[in-house]
Amino acid sequence: MSAALPLNEPLFWLLASVGVVLSGISKSGLAGGAGVIAVPLLSLVLPLPLATALLLPLLIAMDAQTLRYYWRQISWAEARWLLPAAALGVALGTALLGSLSATHLQLMLGVLCVLFALWQNLLPYLTRWRRAALLWGTLSGVSSTLLHAGGPPLNAYLLGRNLVKAHWLATAAVVFALMNWLKVPAYLTLGSWSADVLLCALALLPLAWLGVWLGKRLQGQINEQQFIRLCRGLLLLSGLLLLGKAWLAA
User: Fold this and answer.
1) Which stretch of DSSP H or E encloses residue 140?
2) For the residues 98-108, what does the mean pLDDT come to?
3) Is the pLDDT of residue 1 over 50?
4) What pLDDT does residue 13 have?
5) Among 96, 92, 89, which residue's Cα sits nearest to residue 190?
6) For residues 198 and 87, what is the distance between their CA atoms, to the nearest angstrom?
7) Are 245 and 62 in contact (CB under 8 A)?
8) 206 burial class (0-12, 13-18, 19+ CB within 10 angstroms)?
């Protein structure tokens, strides 16, 4: 990867720190709903491929800690369909790496996020038909591979499933963990991880763990209805951020 990390710029460390902490909070407290914010933040000071390469090791560390918190609450009835669909999505996303415009993907995903966040009556029709998990899990895998933005499609699906909060968080955690590990071979093949990138990720690791811990504390302070409203709001925010990023890149 030709671009170098701007390690001497305070703005880089500020945006990276905020993005990593928000991602950690999102992982364990909001089912990944705010995780999409990290890539747009880092993309303000880094090329998109470098931003996603830096975040992936941190996301894997966050997944491990989140699963430690929620393993017993996983809804395997949902996960058994979402996991293979997510794996298919990662495979499709890997095949598209370098050939599909990130701008177009951001635009499409942003429109879907805003639509689902604002049109509450739409979700039951698109998430409760037989095997809907296959569609949303695949879409989550594709967008996760290309943009680390698997949260909005997955949450759009889970939002319509009326899961208990702990089951929602746990099921999202196991799906994200699978997707992020499956992305590793593609990043290795592309030579995405230089020594500087890995050392920078290591330096940010305590903030990743802090974010996950804060997210666990946060989710214990909100009830089911507040959780749903927060996730819907984050879905809308994610969509607007993706649309803004696509517009700026156009």
Assistant:
1) helix 132-147
2) 69
3) no
4) 92
5) 96
6) 25
7) no
8) exposed
Torsion of CA 93, 57, 171, 238, to 10 degrees: -70
In 3-state terms, the chain is what percent helix, strand and coil (to 5)? 80, 0, 20
**Whole-angstrom distance, CA of residue 26 vs CA of residue 4:** 28
d(CA 247, CA 236): 16
Rounded Cα distance, 109 and 124, in Å: 19
- Amino acid letter for position 32: G
* CA–CA separation, 113 and 62 (whole Å): 24
Question: In this model, does residue 187 exceed pLDDT 90?
Answer: no
CA distances from 158 to 123, 128, 163, 172 (A): 9, 10, 7, 8
pTM of the prediction?
Answer: 0.79
Tokens of 244: 């803004």
Please give the full DSSP string across 155-174, using - where no structure is assigned. Answer: HHHHHTTT--HHHHHHHHHH
What are the tens digits of pLDDT across the range 15-57?
A: 899 889 888 888 887 766 556 677 777 777 777 778 888 999 9
What is the Cα gyration radius of the chain?
17
Query: Which residues does 208 contact at the CB level (< 8 Å), separation at least 6?
Result: 20, 21, 23, 24, 58, 61, 62
Q: Which H helix or E strand runs over 104? A: helix 102-118
Q: DSSP code of 119?
A: -
Which residue is it, tokens 């991880």?
Answer: 193
Report pLDDT for 7. Answer: 82
